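Researcher: Quick test of sequence recovery. Tokens follow.
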């Protein structure tokens, strides 16, 4: 029996190339078997654009699955009822896989798995644009920041465990009080707080001061009204983040400018809008 299990593990190693973070220790037999099962349920190419990328952070005992699922992506803002039904089924499968891999490893409570879905136009290896994430961190399967689901008005990409929902609410409240209408709210993770931040796409009266000098053409290093720098510095300090990036849109939803604040530096630019 032991010989059979050993041969199975060797076969798994040969058949499945599992990316592991650099400088990590050698995987245990249980971890290899768990990865094998994960890749069985979340293969590289499942058809119709559904695809997965599996990695393992051995230092944090974290099985990481990133996915593209064009169908669920298309339903999220247009058919919320069917979106929720599909997400419920996906969570049931995730829970079953999580239970299965815990039978493979010693000290199963020390491990956890995440399954996140990002925009299909981005690379699977990218951690940006995540709109849905399941996690078993803490021993309980849950949806990360599931109160922020994309609507026809606002697209939320904040499905990261390090994105505190209270911070998202604070960000929304801070700028909404200044006459802002949101169309995109995105969290970008980083190695440390100085490289963590939010990207927002907005319109409304708050954009007026930035639009005042807009000449309809692309231009870098533009003069940025002090109010934007002051506000960005205030919210960055409040949320203890490293940067905030704002894309300004006109009443038609067309982007005409951008302002970025990072640490104590800032930049501004205008975009040409084709008629």
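Model:
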């Amino acid at each position: 029996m032991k010989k059979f299990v050993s041969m199975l593990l060797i076969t798994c190693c040969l058949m499945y190339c599992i990316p592991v973070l650099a400088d990590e220790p050698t995987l245990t037999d249980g971890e290899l078997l768990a990865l094998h099962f994960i890749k069985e349920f979340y293969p590289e190419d499942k058809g119709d654009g559904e695809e997965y990328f599996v990695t393992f952070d051995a230092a944090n005992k974290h099985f990481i699955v990133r996915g593209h699922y064009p169908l669920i992506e298309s339903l999220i803002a247009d058919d919320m009822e069917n979106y929720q039904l599909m997400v419920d089924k996906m969570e049931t499968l995730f829970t079953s896989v999580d239970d299965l891999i815990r039978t493979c490893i010693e000290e199963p409570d020390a491990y956890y798995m995440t399954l996140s879905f990002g925009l299909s136009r981005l690379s699977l290896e990218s951690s940006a644009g995540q709109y849905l994430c399941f996690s078993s961190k803490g021993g309980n399967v849950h949806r990360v920041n599931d109160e922020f689901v994309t609507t026809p008005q606002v697209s939320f990409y904040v499905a990261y465990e390090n994105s505190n929902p209270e911070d998202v609410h604070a960000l929304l409240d801070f700028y909404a009080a200044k006459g802002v209408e949101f169309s995109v709210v995105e969290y970008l993770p980083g190695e440390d707080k100085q490289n963590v931040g939010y990207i927002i796409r907005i319109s409304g009266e708050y954009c007026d001061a930035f639009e005042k000098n807009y000449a309809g053409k692309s231009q870098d290093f533009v003069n940025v009204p002090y109010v934007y720098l002051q506000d960005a510095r205030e919210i960055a300090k409040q949320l203890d983040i490293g940067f905030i990036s704002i894309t300004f849109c006109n009443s038609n939803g067309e982007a005409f400018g951008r302002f970025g604040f990072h640490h104590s530096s800032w930049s501004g630019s205008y975009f040409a809008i084709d008629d």
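The CA atoms of residues 34 and 103 lie 8 Å apart.
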